[in-house]
Amino acid sequence: MGGRTRRWEWLSVEPDERQREIDRAIEAWAVGSELVLLVDAAHDAGLGPLECRYMATESMLVHLRCCIEFLIGRKSTRATDLTARRFDPGWTAAPAAAVTALEALLPVLDRHLAHLTIDRLRDVAHWPIVEPVDAVLEVMVMLDTAMAEADAPMRRHFAPYVGLALQRWALHRPRLQGVDAPATTFTSRPFLVPLDDDVGIGGWVARLGPFTSAGLAPLWPPTEGDA
Fold this sequence. Notes:
Elements: H1 7-11, H2 15-47, H3 50-72, H4 84-87, H5 97-113, H6 119-122, E1 126-128, H7 130-150, H8 155-176, E2 180-182, H9 200-208
Antiparallel strand pairs: 1-2
Helix pairs in contact: 2-3, 2-7, 2-8, 3-5, 3-7, 5-7, 7-8
């Protein structure tokens, strides 16, 4: 069903295929939004106000890790994980400089995002911006080309997001050349130095009033298989 589908054409589709098409659109949105948000967070990490650049850097790194996981995968995955092979069963990330760079970057991102570790204080002073986003987009284009050659049904939903990310990156990238994002560690943020005050922890707790923690548990009840 290429292009825009008229209502009566859509209703003529078998219900099972209709549901599969809806699922494809949702999955394409989930991955495509990560890609577009990566591009926009990279812009803010490099060019926003200093206080906002720290937050934008962390956002950029989270979206970057999600995109890399999608493209090259993990050694162990769940059946519900969104991977490039789910979009194109025949996809294999071909050996290329961009793929090698992303494979090397993933464990670095893990150390800085997944755990509180001393490594966070020692490793990265500043995060490059242009190079990792370039690598993600290059491999995304490789995937789009493979999907087009395989006539993958997912492509009609996913390709617009790749195009939008490329369009926005074409606007952001020239201004980000030679710009790094700030480090994400606490020690790199001079405006987060604890203040000496006379109120104390007890005083601030009293000013805050009751915590609402008890309302959190029902939002995420434990489910089987959760770590």
